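As a warm-up, study this chain.
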Amino acid sequence: MNLVEKSKLIQEIQQLISKLQQPSLTLFERAKSHQRLKDIFQSCDDAIFQKQLGAFKERLYPSQALQERLLNSHYQFSFCGLFEAHDDLQQQLKNATDTRWGLTHQKAYGWEIGLNSPDQENPIYYPAQSLEQCFHWLQQCQQDGLLKSDDQLQPVVPVLTTLQPSTQQRSQSTTRLTPASISPSAKVTDQDASSTATVTKSYPADPTHKKTIFEPISTELQLEELHCRVNPLKKKSAQQENLYQLVIQQQEHAAFLNLYSCNPRPEKIINRPVYLAEQIDKRGCFIRYIAVLGAENQMQAMRLLMQIAGMHQQELAAIKACEWAEFKSHCDHLESLYQVYSAQEKTLWQKAQYQAFVPVSLLHTHKFIAFEETPATYSTPLILLKERQKIRVVHGKSRLQLSADESVYPSLLLDRQDAVTWQVIQQTLQQLTPPIEAQQLYQAILQNLKASDTTKIA
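Now compare it with the structure written out below.
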């Protein structure tokens, strides 16, 4: 097979995978595309196709792909399972007495890997788009002293058993990958997994990690025109990461931003990206922005942000990155920091069903069109319309009245530039029966816009 033929096949593979992601694809077309992909991979043994084959397996059969990757890795003995939900993984890690790591997988959002050790009060998590990123993160954790490889754990004789699915299980097979000492089951469902496997290992307790604790040379740090006070963190996990908090002297009482650094050198900090995250509480309400300075790479920054949120029993909604020059010029006010954050087109990570947060001080809260809304909860977003330099509330009166303590709200933004006018909104409202729910209105407006575009094309 020459290079031209290989190039054409790779292009066809990419097109088939893209086609399979379309929800409107018929079952016949889906099966036809699956078969064509299998035929291509079976006919090609060259190394150039192995990466495409791995991505294909991860997308359609994640547990099979994980099983193959796990059996060839150096972290089998500390693996606690593949789970359907984040809460199940979190509970498993919290109950573990030794160092453990595990995974969740959702087709829409990819992989999430979590790690916990006796030296950490709470697990740390890292979102990833592939198994390759997950195992690269484990290698980084090993280098940081947070995880031991199988060789370092000196396992007793390993045993691998394969179990057939029982008739009482779902019609779709379930792959279970757990160490013997973990009693709760860890499950994930594939579309077409051919067998159910259990990996069983025996091993001694994980020895205490070697710690490298950084003590700041000074209690102050000068970052160009920003003068910062350095506050060491008492958490052992933070000390292992050389992580400390910075308080900008000019805004010591600012509640909208917490600043952290993992590098004591100003020249490193100002020449590296600033990683910003939206921190939320258990209800999903915005608390503040968290910024990490001096991280060597995106992976380290995301791990530290997850760890910081976990230290306070809180969560993250999304993570972005900006340049130091942008950050230092806009970190003095909530509204200006929001403008920098929202202007970053690339989102490094976001939670499922993410809704962007916007300060209420930037909104025109008086509704142009009055209608009855359903009662709001803390997860109810504001429906907003951006026109020119103004952002107006379309739906959200009940959400704004829910709590007087919030200054930043979850939102779904419509834009006048996308042909969303007050006339379109009025026509959509007339099609709905009050009281009207926020998501219901938002989806109805989008459907009307789509129908209008289709009519114009016809």
